Amino acid sequence: MPQGQPTTVPDDGLTTRARRNLPVLAVHTGPGKGKSTAAFGMALRAWNQGFDIGVFQFVKSAKWKVGEEAAFRRLGALHTEHGVGGPVEWHKMGAGWSWARKQGTEQDHAAAAADGWAEIKRRLAAERHDFYVLDEFTYPLKWGWIPVDEVIEVLTARPGTQHVVITGRDAPAALIEAADLVTEMTKIKHPMDAGRKGQKGIEW
User: Fold this and answer.
1) Which residue of 91, 173, 202, 203 is surrounded by the most CB atoms within 10 Å?
2) From CA 140, how far away is CA 143, in angstroms rounded?
3) How many whole angstroms from its chain centre is CA 100?
4) Does the keyword Transferase apply (predicted)?
5) ∠ CA 127-140-38 to the nearest 5 degrees?
6) CATH number corresponding to 21-185
7) 17-46: b or e for each residue (b if 16 or more CB lie within 10 Å)?
């Protein structure tokens, strides 16, 4: 894609503007660091365009303090108070539809994941948000808690121009095939390889 130009232009009868406004399904996967970070970077751009942002974290506990959450909550407040950017909703364990792997049975976690996906389906059908981040959503797919085929069917048939970004390792092949944008994060080196634990400002 030299200078942002597509390598081919499909004969689909759409204008350049119409094609540019098509909704994007993106997947950030792979063993490397930065999958969620990249998704939140995209969400930041979307917020700046006035998009309605919905973030759904599927693995992190409510006790885990995520730096991006604090920042996006402030951005949401900025929109509410001053009309800047777009509205923001952030849902996770204790405030939405997620689970902590150390608490409850596997059946409990699977049920919570299914409830979360059901809520996202309702929101997609209602065109509730313009931009969705389904953070670490590949894991309930990998564990068989949410049917991959159903997810692909719902996402590919979603109405309007709702953008969806999914993060997590081991994205199913069918999801990768259905996505418009797929990035694989490949680890070359990581501080943990040298025995260093996560650091504030880097991991959270």
Assistant:
1) 91
2) 5
3) 18
4) yes
5) 65
6) 3.40.50.300
7) eeeeeebebbbbbbebeebbeebbebbeeb
Tens digits of residue pLDDT in 103-145? 567 787 788 888 899 999 999 999 999 999 999 999 999 999 9
pLDDT at 2 over 60: no
Cβ 83 vs Cβ 52: under 8 Å: no
At 88 the three-state DSSP class reads: strand
**How many Cβ atoms sit within 10 Å of the Cβ of residue 14?**
13
pLDDT at site 39: 97
Cα separation, 198 vs 60, in Å, equals 15
Average pLDDT over the chain reads 87
> Please, which residues bridge with residue 26 across strands?
165, 181
Confidence of residue 62 (pLDDT cuts 50, 70, 90): low
pLDDT band at 38 (very low <50, low <70, confident <90, very high): very high
The domain limits of the chain are 21-185
Please list the alpha-helical segments (H only) found in the chain.
Answer: 16-20, 35-48, 67-82, 106-126, 138-142, 148-156, 173-178
144-190 pLDDT, tens per residue? 999 999 999 999 999 999 999 999 999 999 999 999 999 999 988 88
Distance between CA atoms of residues 61 and 112, nearest Å: 13
The answer to whether 7 touches 161, Cβ cutoff 8 Å, is no
pTM: 0.88
